[in-house]
Design goal:
Elements (H helix, E strand, L loop, with lengths): L1 E2 L12 E4 L2 E4 H4 L7 E2 L15 H18 L6 H10 L9 E6 L4 H11 L9 E3 L22 E4 L5 E3 L18 E3 L5 E2 L3 H12 L26 E2 L5 E2 L9 H6 L7 H8 L2 H4 L9 E2 L36 H10 L4 H19 L7 H12 L2
Helix pairs in contact: 3-10, 3-11, 10-11
Length: about 375
Amino acid sequence: MLRPAHVTAMTLGLALALGPGGLTPASRALGDETEPVVEPPEQFQPRIMEGYPDWYIERLAARERKIIDDLGARRNALGVRAGLILLNTEEWKPGSVITVAFNGGTPRLHALIERIASVWSQYGNIRFDFGRDASGHYRTWSPTDIDYKADIRVGFLPGGFWSAIGRDSINPDLNQPGNETLNLEGYDRSLPYQFARHIRHEFGHALGLEHEHQSPNFACDFRWDDDPGYVRTTDKSGQFVIDGQGRRPGIYTWFGGPPNNWSKTKIDFQLRQLTTLNPDIPVADYSVGQFDKLSIMKYYFDDCMYVSGKNSPCYSPGEIYELSAEDEKRIAMYYPVGGAVAMTRQVQKKAAIESVLTQIPQSSLLAKELQARKDQLQ
């Protein structure tokens, strides 16, 4: 589990919704005709994977390009590398109350999302506030907003499942007040069978957690390319499958076809190691915990997607539905309960930023971004 320089990582899960009296089948939790229903198992396939839309990937890339261009010849300096990592440590301050708002959906759906997402607060000193009023209605936002109605703005638009990482949700260079920052496509119409897995995963991102399968300290043995001689073969949904001779599509082919239709750039962005995506930053510059194949923040892949199949150290035997023990430990470490411990982490972060600021031009965009981050730690 990892996160660059104070960062951690963890993917998706649960086919039950938590009702007021405990575990209740999701179809009962949203059981009237005005509410979305859970799709039956035969409608789950093909699997739509979580991932940023192309426009958001470009915004992230543009921010980094802007900083690098601003620094010019100093781009490879130690301070620059450390500074870029610090900018990616998008945690909230321990003890924070993170506000959430919805655009679309019903109070009953909002309540379901609140119950599932709030599991993170059981293990870390951090809390979501969904703005539920006395009548049972929740905080809302609109695309026409000129002020941020909430830190996290949930939408149900086309574009799949995704979330901004931590405080990126309130960074105006990336997300304006009228932008959704956590998307659950179609949840206002019907719920995919593994809806709670998606919700927990996306709210993990909203707390600042990255993908576990992208650990810079551990390379999953993904089978990127097709088996030699593979003949492109699809099922009735159009998804690429094993051909008549038992040859398998590789990850690029599988993700590049329906229903995901991802570009190679997007596949690399969502699956490649962080050190591959940022080759100028060595592994030693990251703060890396042990790799956790059972993390809620790791994608589930069928065994055929790994070179070693079921023997792959990255393979988990099924979808991950709950936070792992390592997930619980990590969120507690990044959002500690003890005031003294939390203050120590804040002091450490502030010192790290000050160290970088002494090594880079004070007029640079990176310096301005880091100074703003330092101000947030006060």
